[in-house]
Design a protein that fits this description.
Blueprint: H1 7-11, H2 14-42, H3 58-71, H4 74-79, E1 100-114, E2 117-128, E3 135-146, E4 149-155
Antiparallel strand pairs: 1-2, 2-3, 3-4
């Protein structure tokens, strides 16, 4: 036993022990409250992440991608794809569609592959400038979900391309 400590001091008296345990309980309660306040003060710190509404679903991502291609907007098309993916067409590359007056996507069919990954096929219908007849083909792609946004990872198969029909145009001589 350390010097100056009597054996009776360790056991204590019932009246003395109770306030000490209450004091420990009240400190513990205050500590929990301070810890909760400290944790709450950290909420909202840092940069907020907002999901791009154009990438909220596979069909909206695909529609945004095609619209970006149609407008020849490379940045908007790149936003719709997985970063650094060379497999996906981008504006400026050899493009098979003629200038179009209308472009619509329909008949979306999706097949979930795993959590956050889906295969989608769809119909692309377009009207070349100068023609009154719509042309169409079926194509598809694989999409992955990254941070709440759907991104095109790669095309699946080849598009069932329509037979090429040149557009008759007037020529000035």
């Amino acid at each position: 036993m350390p010097a100056g400590v009597e054996p009776d001091d360790r056991e204590g008296i019932a009246g003395v022990v109770a306030p000490a345990s209450r004091r420990v309980a009240s400190l513990s309660w205050r500590g929990v409250l301070l810890l909760a306040l400290g944790a709450a003060s950290l909420l909202g710190q840092g940069e907020r992440y907002r999901v791009n509404p154009r990438l909220i679903s596979p069909s909206r991502t695909i529609a945004s991608y095609w619209e970006a291609l149609r407008r020849d907007d490379e940045n908007a098309a790149a936003e719709c794809t997985v970063e650094g993916n060379p497999d996906v067409p981008y504006p400026g590359m050899l493009w098979f569609l003629p200038p179009t007056s209308e472009l619509t996507l329909s008949d979306f069919r999706s097949l979930p592959v795993s959590s956050g990954r889906v295969l989608v096929t769809y119909l692309v219908r377009y009207r070349p400038v100068g023609l009154e007849v719509d042309q169409s083909f079926v194509t598809g792609c694989e999409l992955v979900r990254q941070h709440g946004e759907w991104r095109i990872e790669k095309p699946i198969g080849e598009a069932s391309m329509p037979e090429w029909k040149p557009i008759p145009r007037a020529v000035d001589i």
